[in-house]
Amino acid sequence: MRVLGKIGRQYRVIILGLAVIAxxxxxLYFSGTSPRLPYQDSFSSGRTGEWRAYGGNWEIHEGAIRxxxxxxxxxxxxxxxxxxxYSVEADMMLLGQSGDAGLVVRSTDEEDGIDSYSGYYAGLRxxxxxxxxxxxxxxxxxxxxxxxxxxxxxxxxxxxxxAVGCDVAAVASDPETGQRTVAALREEDCARKGxxxxxxxxxxxxxxxxxVAPATREDLLAIERGNQxxxxxxxxxTEAGYAAVMTRSMRHGLTLPPASILGRSRVSExxxxxxxxxxxxxxxxxxxxxxxxx
Amino acid sequence: MREIRWQVIAASLVWSFCxxxxxxxxxxxxxxxxxxxxxxxxxxxxxxxxxxxxxxHKGAEAAGRQTGFHIYWNAPTRDDDIERQVxxxxxxxDDRPAGLVLAPDHDLALVGPVRHAMSxxxxxxxxxxxxxxxxxxxxxxxxxxxxxxxxxxxxQVGKVLKGKGTVGIVGLATTAMNIMIRARAFEDAxxxxxxxxxIVAREGGSxxxxxxxxIAREMLLNYPHLDAILALDNVATMGSLEQxxxxxxxxxxxxxxxxxxxxxxxxxxxxxxDSIIIQNTNEMGSLAVRWIAARVRGxxxxxxxxxxxxxxxxxxxxxxxxxxxxxxxxxxxx
Lengths: 294, 334
Fold this sequence. Notes:
The structure holds two protein chains of two kinds.
Chain A: H1 2-6, H2 9-31, E1 39-40, E2 52-54, E3 58-61, E4 64-67, E5 74-78, E6 86-95, E7 100-108, E8 118-125, E9 129-136, E10 139-146, E11 156-164, E12 167-173, E13 180-186, E14 195-201, E15 204-214, H3 217-224, H4 234-237, H5 239-251
Chain B: H1 2-29, E1 40-44, H2 51-67, E2 70-73, H3 82-94, E3 99-102, H4 111-119, E4 124-128, E5 139-144, H5 146-160, E6 165-172, H6 177-193, E7 197-204, H7 209-222, E8 228-231, H8 234-246, E9 254-258, H9 262-269, E10 275-278, H10 281-296, E11 304-307, E12 310-313, H11 320-326
Parallel strand pairs in B: 1-2, 1-3, 3-4, 4-5, 5-11, 6-7, 6-8, 8-9, 9-10
Antiparallel strand pairs in B: 10-12
């Protein structure tokens, strides 16, 4: 310490400054700058600083954030890796003719890509389904629940997802009809912590009024009570299982969106000129040219 | 008091500057910084989230578990997004994985990235369709037998038309060598075995479903009395099916498709698609990972193998063999 005592005043100031920076950096490193619970968005103020996009084309519009792209698996993520038992809710709207959009919980390890994250996803699928499943750089669909009234585009729905322990339950409500649809899953070896996010698949989407708050088992049971909780994705992972679910959904009035699985948009039946005729639309005559050096 | 305060400041400085040193030390002593010890095999299909490629995922994960390798799985969100696949492959190469398994989106565009992987001594297996690079120097091929796919399609068309009628081909893509092989093999087998079945239309292909829809629409307008359609990949099959449904001809004009797809299989069960010839992508994924594991152990692996496609129709879709080929329960493989 004698050495330090001999250090000049100006050097002491520099050392002190460095120490302050180092301590601040350590505090930031260990605490992070991520939002804390409870959390609510600032979209109405035009702020998205704490959010990060993975694919898609995101913008704020009339107090909501919307993804105008129909990219499969576009994500918009915020929150903390330390968030564990919580509920997230938002108003959401589907923009598109097929596909689905919804909420992600306990998300970690996100990347650009269709199922490139680890976490859970619950969403509304055009035209009459609610879906819930597990993503772990791959997709495992646990439940597809038919919705009595067809899901419509450009209409606000309310979606709430609660994750407590190894249970994840979601409830979608139609504010016009009051109809509620529940989907829930339980996983033995589950993802226990992670961020929240919006995700859309083959459809654009809009989200607003996002609220995240700590949740208890009572919050979970309030959704799960009286509803089936899927504890295995296996049925949906086989072709026969998928066909059985589709057949059941069709009995509940599902109209099949053509080719929705690969995110292909439907083509209108307007009269269009033949493709082969398009090469003749230009009447520009190229000028005469000479090619030299051959 | 004064000395104690300076001790605290000095300790803080030492503490904060220790972190980078500790980080470097951890990196050096862990496997993360040693590319040669990477235990990750990157598997990059043309896209993900479809039955064609998730079966590959299942096979790769199962083999990864058996051989002790972690599987990194990602792809572009569309199977025509060549630029993103090139970028993804380049990023993966920079991470120096133990191996690379790639289903190229384009015959030529992926040549550069694959040569880059070879130059870094990363064992690479190209799956499904070929690239114009000879095997060797760490590069192998596990391909679909597209000749057989074309032959199976011809035999099925001849069978459903009872040896007489007209057929249109949709999905010809001159930039995709494997598609052209399918088409050529179909024409050869059809003319050799069913001379009274004539090919009256040969239409192009596209990864864009809207364009395919239009192509199929024009073909059906020009040839309203077609008896059958051969669609050379799953986008062409879906585009043709949608147009047949619009015109109320699904099921009456026999549609024979190529490459598996979740919804197409459902429509096959509904009788709107006659049959679909599927690739064994499950085995491709499994074999590719096992080959890379063998190369890492210093063992020799074959340069090239072609896997047999299988024709699926209503009569065999529920057999255990077909259900196994179509399964995508990749997580149970972990």
